[in-house]
């Protein structure tokens, strides 16, 4: 067993996630490394990539989605993510394996039986095989088929609850934006080389390796909380980890046991923290990967300042790899609110401010502490 401290873990994560060492690569490279970028808010996805990029001219999330090299779909925790197709297919397989739409509570909430969901998968797959449709156009096409008239309200819901099981089974994904309207199409139509949804036991190694390679060391429970809010049976998730035992290294982090891909064990052991401060945007994977309940990353007494009402995740200020505050942009100033009342100087924040200014495309940013 490898034994390390939390400083080493956070130093390693900062490097692996392109926070301490921005990449000259593309949006696809960032999304691959992070195992997806949350895209509920398009601007947040763009910022997550931009602050990790050393080249402001690199292709962003929107361009990659348009090219089909990233796909946008309901993935981890039922939220929209931009992902490279191989990881998307693997994630959808694992999430779909929980078959949450077959649970009585889901059927009671959304009014669709497992048989109706199966019929929707078949109908929608056929409708979208050769076209891109807006939500309204897709709903009208579905309601024109017999047996679906009572699902009109659910299908039109902006939350997409009835559409999510279709995404998890590969029947649809988001298509190119049509102005402000969301569109849908079939993954095979959008993405060159799409090979469909793999079997969960084949998909597990892809997603576990990707997750642990960015957010490790971590447990099976932490992985499934990130993936499905612990919807997959614990024994199944543990079995996926056990099947990968030869490729993983067990790590003791100051008494917390987790796993990491063995190829990164030496890098983790050698990682050291610098004294840089980092600013990351809203809905950033740095906190969504481990989860806001990780009290080493985010002190419990400050969780509500990061995980806000209506599912909003605040922009982050990182000190020593931990979440030490939040920030917001007000005009040409960054207003930083540190949890401990510490006042960060412009000198301490100069690198982070420069990178943030470049990421959002402004000439420069001032700072104000509150």
Structure at a glance:
The chain has helices spanning 6-16, 27-33, 42-50, 61-67, 85-97, 104-110, 114-128, 135-143, 152-156, 164-168, 187-190, 200-215, 220-228, 234-243, 265-270, 285-288, 303-306, 346-360; strands at 2-4, 37-38, 71-74, 80-83, 133-134, 173-174, 183-185, 248-253, 256-261, 277-280, 316-319, 322-330, 333-338, 366-369. The chain is α+β, with helices and mostly antiparallel strands.
Map the helices and strands.
Layout lengths: L1 E3 L1 H11 L10 H7 L3 E2 L3 H9 L10 H7 L3 E4 L5 E4 L1 H13 L6 H7 L3 H15 L4 E2 H9 L8 H5 L7 H5 L4 E2 L8 E3 L1 H4 L9 H16 L4 H9 L5 H10 L4 E6 L2 E6 L3 H6 L6 E4 L4 H4 L14 H4 L9 E4 L2 E9 L2 E6 L7 H15 L5 E4 L1
Parallel strand pairs: 1-8, 13-14
Antiparallel strand pairs: 2-4, 3-4, 5-7, 6-7, 8-9, 10-11, 11-12, 12-13
Helix pairs in contact: 5-12, 13-14
Question: Could you characterize the architecture of this molecule?
Answer:
By secondary structure, this protein is of the alpha+beta class. It folds into three domains: 9-190, no CATH class; 206-270, Orthogonal Bundle (Arc Repressor Mutant, subunit A), CATH 1.10.10; 277-369, no CATH class. It is built from 18 helices and 14 strands.
